Amino acid sequence: MKSRVVVITGGTSGIGRALCDCFAKANYQIVLAARSEDKLKKVQKELSLTGTQILVVKTDVRLEEDCKNLAAETINCYGQIDVLINNAGITWYESDNDGINISKQRDLINTNFFGTVNCTKHMLPHLLDTKGSLVGVCSIAGEVGLPNRSAYSSSKFAMNGFLSSLRVQHIKKGLHVLVVFSGYTSTNIRKSAIKDCNSSGFPPGYGGDVMESNMLSAEETARHIFNGVKYRKRALRPTFVGKVTVLLNKLIPHLNDRLLHKYYK
Predict the structure, then answer these.
(1) Predicted TM-score of the model (pTM)
(2) What angle do CA 232, 110, 226 make, to 5 degrees?
(3) pLDDT confidence of 185, banded at 50, 70, 90?
(4) Which CATH number among 3.10.520.10, 3.40.50.720, 3.40.50.1950, 3.40.50.1820 corresponds to the domain 5-263?
């Protein structure tokens, strides 16, 4: 029986890198995409030491041609696509003093939303052929608006809407769509959000600091996602805080707004 093929974007660190290990252990053929060729080769070398052979493709998900090439390279090498995990993403924390940053709004929409759109456009026909899984690593911020994250929340709400629409559109074609509403995870995404940040990856004076020890690890999050694909789940909320936040938002939205302002700001 042919091995199944998974494509992972943003796969050189954090959740993406941990996903490589999960799918490698399950004998998937892995295609890894990221902007840094050096980092891709590093991961390729690491996995080769364990006997895992992967295809790496330098890809900027903001560019449709890159995503088209990623799909073509995958098909040329393996002939099929069974799982696409849209994991590439960036974040940004807005200070009250700086206000709305138009440039950052565009950056996050282009990466988090259009990156998902670009990859999905060129891989969806192949996923429909295999009745495969389309996955978006979203965020609790894609269900509940978080303070000082308007750019991030808007990009993740857009991702959620896009994937949810495709789920309904192709419901009779066997396509599995999983949206992962991740909570605080111990990765470098926060620390790379801005140059001037404290040790937690938040701007100086920014509240809501979460200790690394209280965060879900990238490896734990990856295991949740792998099982979500395995059991074809509709949505995942890996963290307890994330589950509670969404529940309160449904039951007592006005109070939840105040709690979000107090604990996330």
Answers:
(1) 0.89
(2) 20
(3) low
(4) 3.40.50.720
